[in-house]
Amino acid sequence: MGHIEKNSLQDYWTTDNLIETPIFREVIPRDRFLMILKFLLFSDNSLKESRDSPTYDRLWKMRKVFDSFNRIFKEVYDPTKNLSFDEVIIKFKGRVLFKQYIPKKRKQWGLKMYKIADATGHTYDMRVYLGKDKRKPFNICFL
């Protein structure tokens, strides 16, 4: 979760003096967080398109979230003139067709994203690489 990495979710709420991070216990009880995490959904499964459909989106469950983030990034922040384009790996242990392995990155397995950020580190736009799709080429144009 963020910049503090623990071995398991329960470790964020531990009271062990060596590894405790009290802010998590102060903000939300562990059981409540786990219950929210269990039932949190961003999509309606009844609206899922067939994988054979030419408009099928591999990121359909999270597409609205990513589109909302990109829209909000553009609304609330004007980037400086120094922008960088970067390939980012988001550590992910789950099962998806578009999980990538990049041996030169510190986090070798995960979701590959391309993002535009300014010199302060604020993200202006991001795209998730969804793997090779023979039906349509990967478009990385941010314009």
Automatic annotation (TrEMBL):
Upper lineage is: Eukaryota, Metazoa, Ecdysozoa, Arthropoda, Chelicerata
Under PANTHER family, the record lists: PIGGYBAC TRANSPOSABLE ELEMENT-DERIVED PROTEIN 4
A Pfam family assignment: DDE_Tnp_1_7
For this entry, the protein name equals PiggyBac transposable element-derived protein 4
Q: Which InterPro entries match?
A: PGBD
Domain called PiggyBac transposable element-derived protein: residue spans: 1-136
Recorded superkingdom = Eukaryota
